[in-house]
Design brief:
With about 55 residues, the chain is mostly helical. It has two helices and no strands. The chain has one domain.
Length: about 55
């Protein structure tokens, strides 16, 4: 649950940088990659440690 809020905050921060601060190029790409990796962690880590609702 906490990691979900961190993922949401990272994507919001990325959008804020793009829209308000007009960040382009490598810093913007780095934040997108970090946000995507957090998203993957949010999907796969709980699946490894929880046995509730196995599909």
């Amino acid at each position: 649950m906490i990691l979900s809020f961190i993922v949401l905050a990272s994507y919001c921060f990325t959008l804020y940088q793009r829209m308000v601060q007009h960040v382009h190029g490598k810093p913007f790409i780095y934040w997108n990659v970090i946000s995507f990796l957090l998203l993957l962690m949010n999907v796969f880590l709980p699946a490894q440690f929880m046995t509730f609702h196995l599909w």
